[in-house]
From TrEMBL:
Residue runs in coiled coils: none
Domain of life: Bacteria
Membrane-spanning residues: none
InterPro entries cross-referenced by the UniProt entry: DUF4842 (IPR032295), LruC_dom (IPR031025)
One Pfam match: DUF4842
DUF4842 domain location: 187-381
Name assigned to this protein: LruC domain-containing protein
Amino acid sequence: MRKSLIITLVASVYVLLGMTSCNKEMYDEKKYRELIHYNSAVDSVDQQHMWQLSEVKSLRFEVPSGSKYTQLHFYTGNPLKKDTVELMNRLDVTEGQKGILSLSVPYLQDSIYAALVDASGNYTVTSVPASQGNVSFASATTGRPMAIIRNQSYTYLFEENFPEPSNDYDYNDVVLRIALERTARNQITIHVTLAAVGAAKQIAGCLRLDGYGYGAIDSVYTISGKTFNDGIAKNSYYFYDKTDNLVAGRNNEAVINLFCDAHQSMMFKVSAGNGILERKKYNVSNQSSETYQITDEPIVSYVVTFKEEYVSSLNYFTLDNLDPFILTEYNSGIFETHLERFKEAQVIMDYFVDTTFKDLPWALMVPQSDFHYPLEGQSIGYRKRTEDGIVALMGAYTELGHSFGEWAEDHTRFYDWYLHPNIKMTY
């Protein structure tokens, strides 16, 4: 019975989603829901879920009059202590200056550290509760930074199957680590690491700057002069062949091209004698084999320079303005896979998006630079009743009270699930 239902539903979805670029009237919402619910890794999903673990906060500041400070920094921890902290944002300032600076703040973060920096590199640091909107340096501490400082970085995880439900929900078909840095008054630098490719088929990737049109950008170049597409023959790009650093989306959005073929950007092997690309899976297994390979993670840093009229808006630019997405071919059409809040964007391609109900998403963002994503074939976390009524807890993030499945069922709780991996099931 169970096997026949799968066959029926899968056959249905091939018909239902045949409307890729033409006959959308063929779409049957009821059958599509049945298919996704049957394959879901959880019994129920909070229909208010946006799958967010961070939020944008704007902090008001005032640089003391008569001071010689040149910069204002915001950190995840105290830079005066021997620790590893992330730089959340920074701004060139002058004495007496007032203003607002926005930050992307994880829900779990209780405090933010603000630091005024002088020309000699001395830091004047104060702690600000994450719930507070104003910065005061009345009781600050002065010293030299002792922490290891990194740019704030988040991990982005993608499933390759959109618009079909996933087979495993291991969220490792493409894994990106993205860090953001304000490098000049009119410039940001986006550091993109391609950490893993666990997909079986070709995947392309792009990055939209949410809220910014193509005309807002003066230029985009990479620090190394190289991109993820270097050394790849253009005739192998297949369904996506745009290689300019900056392109205009369907609605004239600013879009940075990342890679046309994720496998080739990581590493590839052409089978001897026939020239056919052999697609291995990279950094999703703890052992290399004929199918899996452990390899270095390529990094490309994109320097984005904005036109003068957009400079003031950069004080509000955070990781939340980044919309990384992948493109995959399915049933003669090309689909984009976005984070839930950008699900309807359709930046490069035109296709149908069902927004009437929610199940597990095809993409996740985790506010952690070294998030332990699941190994190939390991679900991110099941919490589902079996046929005999017993609740099953299986997968990489299933610690009771701190599980992914519980968070899926209640978007207001269990935000700390990503801090509780099963190390044996994660990379």
